[in-house]
């Protein structure tokens, strides 16, 4: 059974300020010890104000918007991101998912803004959850 579809053009935005604590958690999950992500001095030596937020941690904020937009009967079938610049700790990302195509699957356009500047764009395809594993 296909769950109800949200209307094309409908959108939801989830905002979050990325913190040092979350960066530490994601470092533990990913095992990524790249200096720009875990060493403030290395990031500042590259001209950044602070450590770079893990791109997949920033991308994860879109999963909240997608889940709230589509509801519990949907899961991510595909997702892609393009990052215009590095996000740094302390910045607040507004992750917006907007419904596009609706034909069995649910196509969404993703946009991420920091202080009105679009820093992430992407797409997601949501598919109905099924018990077939």
Overall description:
The structure is a single chain. With 133 residues, the protein is α+β, with helices and mostly antiparallel strands. It has a domain at 11-18 and 56-128: Thiol Ester Dehydrase, Chain A (Roll), CATH 3.10.129.10. It contains four helices and five strands; from the N terminus they run βααααββββ. Strands 1-3-4-5-2 form a five-stranded antiparallel beta sheet, covered by helices on one side. The longest helix has 16 residues, at 55-70. The radius of gyration is 16 Å and the shape is elongated. The two termini are 16 Å apart. 24% of the residues are buried.
Which characteristics define this entry?
133 residues; alpha+beta; Thiol Ester Dehydrase, Chain A; 5-stranded antiparallel beta sheet; 4 helices; elongated
CATH C-level class of the domain at 11-18 and 56-128 = Alpha Beta
Strand order of the largest sheet: 1-3-4-5-2
Low-confidence stretches: none
**CATH architecture identity of the domain at 11-18 and 56-128:** Roll
Number of strands: 5
Query: Beta-strand percentage?
Result: 35-45%
Can you count the helices? 4
The ordered string of helix (H) and strand (E) elements is: EHHHHEEEE
Ends distance: 16 Å
- The radius of gyration over CA amounts to 16 Å
